[in-house]
Amino acid sequence: MTAALLYVVIGLATVVVLLNGAIIATRAALIQRQKRLRRVRPGTETLLAEYLAGTPAMPATATRRERAVLLDVALEAIADLRGEERARLVGLLEELGFVSSAMSGLSARRRVSRRRAAEVLATIRSRAAVGALTPALADRDALVAVTCAYTLAEMGGEGYVAAVIATIKRHAVRAPGATAAAMLALGAKQPSALTPLLARDVAPPVRMTAIEIVSELRLPQYLPALRACLTDAGGTDSDDVAASAARGLGLIGDAEAVEALIGFTSDASRTGAARAAAAQALGSIGDPRAVPVLATQLRARDWKVRAAATGALGGLGDPGIAVLRRAASSGSAEVRLLAEAALQP
Q1: Sequence ranges of the domains in the chain
Q2: For 182-240, how does the pLDDT look when each residue is reduced to its tens digit (9 = 90+)?
Q3: Which of 161, 169, 70, 57 is nearest to 120 (CA)?
Q4: Which of 55, 97, 164, 166 has the greatest number of C-beta atoms within 10 Å?
């Protein structure tokens, strides 16, 4: 028994030694590769800069190492380029086969290879890649599919909007950040394309993200849809959606929403966060009709509503300031402190 145990210990020790040796060898190889890449990079950066400045042709890149460095340098540079310079660099990457290689990479068996290919195409945004990007929307990996959706949205064509929207809806839960980026690209290039994402049957997280994008982009054509969100039946999800819509109405400055926001702010069946968002929106819009309801909310049970109402009154001119001055003499210490803070210059 003792001898058997000794053999096991010796075997494990041998494995550990071998693993350490493999790790050291791998690190050494990686360090050497990085050194070689650093030696090639300065020359590649110079050649690419000269090409973009007007040199007739880019010298051939013969080795895999040179091509890898050229692609890395080009992808870093392309984000800062516009107009003819960007088009020239995209043309070079197409000519040298980088675009077609990435298009082929979308069909690779390894997920990491498909993701890398999708990221490369998203950075380059070559029209030549549309034929490969569209079927890749059905990729089983969420990041691959949504990255391709983002690229198509950035290129602005109307023919694949429906497919991009479907991809966003399908993968919003698994890849929220990537789908938000795709929605933003879609809203910036084709504002009307976001309409299906604000429908009541869309999952609340997707709908809220669409509302936030519409709000940040200040798209007035969506104001009726944002107002409609305030009338959804109560509940956590619908109140969260309503809060996002209220913030959007405030950002865009929708005077037609004042009455709806007043009613929402005073609706005790709604969550405090949603009512606070409505109160803040009233302050942003700046309509003095909101003063009475905001004054009553200074004593609301939810502190978020009280704080939001106090801040909103400060944005409603003399009528709001008058309410805050009276509140600064309140017998309630909290109301008094909030009002005093809001009155500070």
Answers
A1: 71-79+88-190
A2: 999 999 999 889 999 998 888 888 999 999 999 999 999 999 999 999 887 666 678 99
A3: 70
A4: 164
Residue in the structure block whose two tokens are 């795709």: 182
Which residues touch 30 (CB under 8 Å, ≥6 apart)?
none
Instruction: State whether residue 332 is helix, strand or coil.
Output: coil
Instruction: Collect all residues with Cβ–Cβ distance below 8 Å to 141 and sequence separation of at least 6.
Output: 111, 114, 115
- Say how far apart CA 170 and CA 327 lie, in whole Å: 50
Q: What is the DSSP string of 150-204?
A: HHHHHHT-STTHHHHHHHHHHHTTT-HHHHHHHHHHHHHH-GGGGGGGGSTTS-H
| Reported pTM | 0.78
Which residues touch 293 (CB under 8 Å, ≥6 apart)?
A: 262, 265, 266, 282
User: Can you read off the two tokens belonging to residue 26?
Assistant: 């791998």
How far apart CA 171 and CA 139 sit, in angstroms, is: 11
The secondary structure of residue 315, as a DSSP letter, is: T
User: 183 burial class (0-12, 13-18, 19+ CB within 10 angstroms)?
Assistant: buried
Looking at the domain 71-79+88-190, which fold is it?
A: Leucine-rich Repeat Variant (1.25.10)
Q: Choose the weakest-confidence range: 15-29, 207-221, 284-298.
A: 15-29
Query: Where is average pLDDT lowest: 54-58, 119-123, 304-308?
Result: 54-58
What's the token pair of residue 151? 């690229």
Q: Give the 3-state secondary structure of 29-42.
A: HHHHHHHHHHHHHH
Tokens matching residue 46:
């110079």
Q: Give whole-number Cα distances, 31 to 34, 69, 120, in Å.
A: 5, 16, 25
Phi, psi of 274 (to 5 degrees): -70, -45
- Among 14-18, 40-44, 198-202, 275-279, top mean pLDDT goes to 275-279
What letters, b where the CB count within 10 A reaches 16 and e where it falls short, cover 229-263? bbebeeeeebbbbbbbbbbbbbbbebeebbebbbe
